[in-house]
Write a structure and sequence with these properties.
elongated, mainly alpha
C-alpha cells in the first residue's frame, strides 16, 4: 500500500454513490479533499496523480499507485457486473458466428448464381414473341386449307346431281309430313241434349 493520502482517498470512493462523482465520471474534487485531508488539492494534481482514474476504471480497471501505475491488484466486481461482462462476451461470440454465416451465405448465393448461368447456357433458346406469332399464323393458314379441301370435296360430290331431285328433308320430317288415311275424316261430334 502507499502512504499518499490522495491515492488512499481515491480508493475510498464508492462507484455506486453519485455524490462522489461528476457527471462525466471524474471524482469530485471536494470529496477527495475531504477524504484525503488535503485542502489545497487541485484538479491538475489529481489528473497528474491518476490520469485514467474514473468511475468506470474503478469498477473495471486496476487501482492506481502513487506514480499513476497499477499495483497489480484486481478490482472487486459484483455479480451483476460479471453477468454483464459474460453477456458482452457471448454477444461478441454470436456476432462472430453471424458474420461467418453471412459470409457462407454470400458464397453459396454466388455459387447458385453461377450454376443458374450455366443452366441457362445449356437450355435451348425459348420461343420469342415473333416465333409465337408465326406459329399462330401457320395454324390459322392450315385450318383455312382444311376448310377449302372440305368445300372442294363437297363440290365434287354434288357435280352432276340435280339439286331439285334431292329431297332435303330428313326421314323424320318426311314421316311427319305424310297424311294418314285413317282417322283424318271423322264426322263432327254432335252435342247431345240432356
Amino acid at each position: 500500500m502507499t502512504n499518499n493520502p490522495v491515492t488512499e482517498a481515491l480508493r475510498l470512493l464508492d462507484p455506486k454513490d453519485d455524490s462522489h462523482w461528476t457527471t462525466d465520471g471524474a471524482p469530485r474534487l471536494d470529496v477527495v479533499q475531504a477524504l484525503s485531508g488535503v485542502s489545497d488539492l487541485k484538479r491538475a494534481d489529481l489528473v497528474a496523480l491518476a490520469p485514467q482514474f474514473t468511475r468506470e476504471s474503478m469498477n473495471f480497471g486496476p487501482l492506481f499507485t502513487d506514480e499513476g501505475a497499477t499495483d497489480g491488484a484486481a478490482p472487486e466486481v459484483d455479480e451483476v457486473e460479471q453477468t454483464r461482462l459474460a453477456l458482452v462476451a457471448k454477444q461478441k461470440e454470436i456476432d462472430s458466428q453471424r458474420a461467418k454465416i453471412n459470409a457462407e451465405t454470400a458464397a453459396l448465393k454466388k455459387l447458385q448464381d453461377e450454376a443458374d448461368v450455366l443452366t441457362r447456357a445449356l437450355e435451348p433458346a425459348g420461343p420469342t414473341h415473333q416465333d409465337n406469332q408465326r406459329s399462330i399464323m401457320a395454324f390459322l393458314a392450315g385450318q383455312n386449307q382444311v376448310r377449302i379441301d372440305r368445300h372442294n370435296i363437297r363440290q365434287a360430290a354434288l357435280r352432276g346431281i340435280d339439286p331439285a331431285s334431292l329431297n332435303a328433308k330428313s326421314p323424320l320430317d318426311q314421316a311427319m309430313a305424310r297424311k294418314r288415311q285413317r282417322g283424318m275424316n271423322r264426322p263432327p261430334v254432335r252435342a247431345t241434349q240432356v
